[in-house]
Specification:
The complex is a heterodimer.
Chain A: H1 2-24, H2 57-67, H3 71-75, H4 79-82, E1 86-89, E2 96-99, H5 116-119, H6 147-150, H7 170-176, H8 182-189, H9 216-220, H10 225-228, E3 231-232, E4 235-236, H11 265-270, H12 276-280, E5 290-295, E6 311-312, E7 316-321, E8 327-331, E9 335-337, E10 350-355, E11 365-379, E12 384-385, H13 396-399, H14 402-413, E13 421-431, H15 445-448, H16 466-469, H17 472-477
Parallel strand pairs in A: 5-11, 10-13
Antiparallel strand pairs in A: 1-2, 3-4, 5-7, 6-7, 8-11, 9-10, 11-12, 11-13
Chain B: H1 2-23, H2 37-40, H3 46-50, H4 56-61, E1 68-69, E2 87-88, H5 93-97, H6 103-111, H7 118-122, E3 130-132, E4 135-137, H8 151-154, H9 161-168, E5 170-171, H10 187-192, E6 195-196, H11 220-223, H12 228-231, H13 261-266, H14 279-282, H15 310-313, H16 320-326, H17 329-333, E7 341-346, E8 357-361, E9 380-385, E10 391-406, E11 412-413, H18 416-423, H19 438-450, E12 457-466, E13 495-498, E14 508-509, E15 520-523, E16 529-532, H20 549-581
Parallel strand pairs in B: 5-6, 7-10, 12-14
Antiparallel strand pairs in B: 1-2, 3-4, 7-8, 9-10, 10-11, 10-12, 13-16, 15-16
Helix pairs in contact in B: 18-19
The chains are: A alpha+beta, B alpha+beta.
Chain lengths: 485, 590
């Protein structure tokens, strides 16, 4: 009798177990992308922790270091402090140099070096006026600016040499510190190039509190920059273009999203050759116009009507554009960088940072870019781009003398100046990763294929529209499933 | 392997098509006597002009587009009892094959009764023909010195979807927001609410309710770069069909023998795929467009399976084959029409232009207007007998029509001209006037009788117009089981036909309707009418929805039988146990 009962109970238990396996087993549930965003640590209210009178920025930093003793040293190892994180091998040389904002030419304000006292208002430190600034010593730790990233009063402003402007309530700022918000990052990154929306096509003041139509991550999901640009020991992940031999810590869409997220085989097949950004950032500079061209050669004209979006005597003429389709190029994450002093061919457009990769590079994908075109000064004898001093005493903005500006400028960058200058066309690529649109507003098939004109297939290396000619795998090998892309 | 070859052949054809506009040789515009129109000034004959290279006689004989057209009723909406007179015109190759045909000028000539000038008028936008006070002329400066028109001027090529849209409905592939064109001239749009456009509905200019959330394209095939000709291709197009393949022996997986491009261009069969007369249809008795491809539904579900492997993408669907056997692809993939379509046509009173009173469904107020909210409509799912003999549910728009007939045994429709003659000026009727009271009907009857119309009476018919376009992407297709498998599912959802029935006459099903309309028209007290579908007649049993008495009975009997058998079995065991208890030998341990 008991044996029979045990057998029956065992059978029932086995049946229930089988049901449980069927119900609870199987593939794990697919988490929504939001679930992959790390939860920030709980906020610590610093209002009661900070007291006393802060006379300058370093005094605030010293107060911070009492509880966060490693923080300053961590920051001093980041590019936000050094402005020179990337090491590159010099062309035709085995010499490796660290490059960054500190020593690279661009086609906006041209070079930070000769103008560093002004440019360092975006430096995460205090007191950078010239080449004597101490980046490494322990004594310099007090010069790390904690407030630029952590202030939440909105009243913290930096002036020349990165020091707080007169009248800033440092105590209030110190009491307010918290996890960085979009506004903290935006203080510098929205204002790159000398004003809102100047430099980046996908970062401007509208991203501080964006609506969903500006950026789905920040607008719909309320995400902060550091939700994606995840930070460890003050090292912030993310990089527009990798130039050097240092491996950067990238931010990928797939950190949160599936690699093939579309539930549509045709669309998923695109992910091997097309970056997510290409379709999901169909337009840049959605609300705020971004600078597309800067012609320095027209600066200094007397009597010409001034308009910050068209012409300024100190800067030359500009072209702005709003809500425009990006340019597209193959990009494997790395770029070729024009290094200060590198020879140029003044008869053609000088590409200051060319994205690497082409149709034959399996690691490259088609990416959206803002291409900023410039006309800037170069030495006609030495055939390289010059680094004029624009800000400050003797600078072009005060004396409107290019020759003098160049003589002063090369002192900071170590270049020779022949005394003869000319103007050359330049281009800079700015990869786009913000102002992301949801699927409802992403590019459609017909935007690129068929009669769509978003992509120039032949310029990208295809014989024609891959919807009809086949994808790059087909072109190169003759058979591949992706050929149908 | 054959799929790859097919794709390569398709790519070659598409590439050829892309360059065709520039590659076409120069053309001399000829008149009916094969003389240059520059010399004679007579109407251009497309058939003679093109006959230099193409066998236009063969094309005309193998075309469903040549020879006749119905001007007054391009949508084919007029009652079947008496459609307006079809006009016989010469085949007009230019309308479909030049890049910028002037259809308005062409129609104007046809309406004016100058059909011979229709082809000439079609060329108006090319600058080769110009309309002056003296009629159509050919400006000499628009032609090269030798009179031969360069390829770029005409841009002759295979038809683009826009050309098809000139007659068949709204086709739009521009970047600016789509504006709905609601008129009877947009035939498929008017009759079925079909719009062929890749644009997201949310991006259109139409005043559509809830538009912000409608991120789907108007038609997914348009979004995925298909042209009308991608499915409705020439019947002997070698890139699409292999006539010999139908008879290929079993050991062949690919039939390489087919028409050369030269042979095809000489005699392209213009009975386009999708047309029952097309040789493409003949090659596939299942009703397929693209040869005997077969498919998950046995090649008979319709043309969708020519390209789609439904089995591969419907793994989530329970009883997949049962669904394929009972549902057309469109039933789920056209769950909603977001453009309005005609609901009522009332020919019982004369109106301006001899037009009927038209009421549209899916738009507030029933009449196209810039401010009215467009709501679209959910098509009626009606059983349709497919060419494989299988009854499948398919989406339809129902159009109700009212008109006067006369005569006894074989009544004839009273024409609008007769009606106008009997009742006076068209304006008398007014656009909103309707015969909704016995005294009004009687008054019209008396006037018609006075005009010699014998036994006038109002009749009404119901047309079912199958919807094939406006296909939604998979994510927008019907997926919820309850949509159909519920007692009050859409399968029995009444379909509103009309707010008022002229004369109180309920419409009857039109003769020859493709849909098996087993439902009934119900006249409501407020004077409106609706159609109530009934699947019983089509022998389609839908689990959770249908109530067939014998199925219920069978189920009840089965349940009762199981309970009964179990009870008998258990009872027998209990009785046996009791009986056996007294007979058990007494063991030592018991």
């Amino acid at each position: 009798m008991w044996i029979r009962l045990i057998v029956i109970l065992g059978a029932v238990a086995a049946l229930l177990g089988a049901c449980a396996v069927l119900l609870l087993g199987g593939p794990p549930p697919v988490l929504p992308p939001r679930a992959h965003v790390p939860k920030p640590p709980p906020h610590t209210d610093h209002a009661k922790l900070m007291s006393g009178k802060f006379t300058d920025g370093p005094s605030v930093t010293l107060a911070c270091l009492k509880c966060h003793p490693k923080a300053a040293e961590e920051v001093m190892h980041t590019s936000h402090w050094t402005w020179a994180a990337q090491k590159v091998k010099l062309p035709k040389s085995d010499k490796v140099v660290a490059v960054g904002k500190i020593n690279l030419v661009n086609n906006f304000c041209i070079h930070a070096g000769p103008n560093i006292e002004k440019c360092s208002s975006c430096h995460a430190g205090y007191g950078w006026r010239d080449g004597s600034f101490d980046f490494t010593s322990k004594e310099s730790r007090k010069n790390v600016d904690c407030l630029i990233c952590h202030d939440q009063t909105g009243g913290y402003r930096k002036g020349n040499a990165g020091n707080p402007e007169e009248g800033v309530d440092l105590l209030a700022s110190a009491k307010s510190v918290a996890r960085p918000t979009r506004k903290n990052c935006g203080v510098c990154h929205f204002q790159g190039g000398g004003g809102d929306a100047v430099k980046h096509g996908d970062l401007d003041g509208t991203m501080a509190f964006p609506k969903e139509r500006i950026d789905v991550h920040m607008g719909r999901e309320g995400m902060q920059c550091v939700d994606c640009h995840r930070t460890r020991d003050h090292r912030i992940a993310g990089c527009g273009m990798e130039y050097g031999i240092d491996k950067m810590q990238w931010v990928h869409c797939t950190d949160c999203h599936a690699e093939k997220p579309h539930r549509d085989a045709r669309l998923d097949a695109h992910t091997a050759s097309v970056a997510c950004q290409t379709c999901h950032i169909p337009r840049m500079a959605i609300d705020a116009p971004t600078k597309m061209r800067w012609d320095w050669s027209e600066a200094g004209q007397e009597g010409r009507k001034e308009d910050p979006h068209e012409y300024l005597k100190i800067k030359g003429s500009f072209q702005y554009a709003q809500n425009i389709r990006p340019s597209y190029a193959w990009f494997n994450g790395r770029g070729q960088r024009y290094l200060t002093g590198q020879k140029i061919d003044p008869t053609s457009v000088v590409t200051i940072n060319k994205p690497e990769g082409d149709i034959s590079d399996p690691t490259a994908k088609i990416w959206p870019f803002k291409i900023h075109r410039g006309k800037q000064i170069y030495d006609t004898t030495y055939q390289y781009l010059l680094t004029p001093r624009t800000w400050g005493p003797g600078g072009y903005w005060t004396e409107f003398d290019w020759d003098k500006a160049c003589r002063l400028g090369v002192q900071a960058t170590g270049l020779e100046y022949s005394g003869h200058y000319g103007w050359v066309e330049t281009a800079m690529y700015w990869p786009l990763s913000h102002m992301v649109q949801p699927k409802e507003k992403a590019l459609q098939c017909t935007d690129c294929h068929g009669s769509g004109k978003a992509l120039d297939w032949q310029q990208l290396g295809y014989p024609g529209d891959p919807a009809f000619f086949g994808g790059r795998r087909t072109i190169s090998s003759g058979s591949d499933k992706e050929g149908s892309r | 392997m054959n799929a790859r070859r097919f794709l390569l052949a398709l790519a070659a054809i598409l590439a050829a098509a892309a360059t065709a506009r520039a590659a076409h040789p120069t053309v001399t515009l000829l008149d009916e006597d094969r003389k240059s129109v520059l010399e004679t000034g007579r109407p251009v004959s497309a058939t003679q002009t093109c006959a230099h290279c193409h066998d236009t006689e063969f094309i005309a004989q193998h075309s469903t587009h040549a020879g006749a057209l119905c001007l007054a009723d391009p949508a084919g909406l007029a009652p079947a009892s008496e459609r307006p007179q079809r006009q016989s015109v010469s085949m007009n190759c230019f309308l479909c094959h030049i890049a910028a045909p002037d259809n308005e000028a062409r129609l104007a000539e046809l309406w004016a009764g100058r059909a011979e000038w229709a082809a000439t008028a079609t060329l108006a936008k090319t600058g080769l023909a110009r309309h002056t006070d003296e009629g159509w002329t050919y400006p000499r400066d628009a032609f090269p010195a030798d009179g031969r028109v360069k390829a770029g001027t005409l841009s002759l090529a295979p038809p683009k979807s826009e050309q098809c849209g000139l007659c068949h409905g709204q086709v739009y592939r521009g970047e600016s927001p789509l504006e709905l064109k609601l008129s009877l001239g947009q035939s498929s749009t008017a009759a079925k609410g079909e719009v062929f456009s890749p644009q997201r509905i949310s991006a259109s200019a139409a005043n559509i309710a809830g538009k912000e959330g409608l991120s789907r394209p108007w038609d997914v095939h348009a979004e995925r770069l298909l042209e009308c000709a991608s499915c409705h291709y020439a019947g002997n197009n070698p890139a699409m069909t292999a006539p010999a393949a139908a008879a290929a022996p079993e050991h062949l997986t690919f039939e390489p023998r087919r028409l050369s491009i030269r042979e095809f261009l000489k005699r392209p069969d213009h009975r386009l795929a999708g047309d029952p007369a097309s040789p493409a249809a003949a090659h596939c008795p299942g009703g397929s467009m693209r040869g005997p491809a077969g498919g998950p539904a046995g090649g008979g579900a319709g043309s969708c399976v020519d390209c789609h492997n439904a089995s591969a993408t419907h793994g989530w669907l329970p009883y997949r084959e049962a669904h394929f056997a009972r549902l057309s692809c469109e039933a789920c993939h056209i769950p909603q029409s977001y453009a309005p379509a005609v609901a009522e046509m009332d020919w019982t009173l004369p109106r301006a232009g001899d037009e009927p009173r038209v009421v549209w469904r899916g738009i507030d107020g029933g009449h196209p207007s810039a401010t009215a909210t467009v709501r679209g409509f959910r098509p009626a799912l009606l059983p349709r007998k497919d060419s494989d003999g299988q009854m499948r549910l398919a989406p339809y728009n129902l159009v109700a029509q009212w008109y006067w007939t006369a005569g006894g045994k074989s009544p004839q429709r009273v024409s609008m001209a007769t009606l106008r003659k009997a009742l006076g000026k068209a304006e008398e009727g007014g656009n909103e006037a309707i015969l909704d009271a016995p005294e009004k009907i009687e008054a019209v009857k008396q006037r018609l009788a006075a005009a010699g119309v014998e036994s006038p009476r109002i009749e009404a018919e119901l047309q079912a117009r199958a919807i094939h376009h406006g296909v939604a992407p998979a994510k927008w297709a019907t997926r919820r089981c309850e949509t159909c498998h519920a007692a009050d599912s859409r399968l029995s959802e009444p379909f509103v036909l009309a707010a008022h029935m002229p004369g109180g006459v309920a419409p009857k099903n039109a003769v020859g309707s493709p849909a098996a309309m087993g439902g009934r028209v119900v006249a409501l007290r407020d004077g409106s009418a609706r159609y109530e579908p009934n699947l019983d007649g089509a022998s389609i049993y839908v689990l959770g929805h249908s109530r067939w008495w014998w199925v219920d009975l069978l189920g009840g009997v089965a349940v009762a039988a199981v309970i009964g058998v179990a009870a008998v079995h258990a009872g027998a065991r209990i009785v046996c146990r009791r009986k056996c208890r007294g007979q058990e030998p007494k063991g030592e341990n018991s």
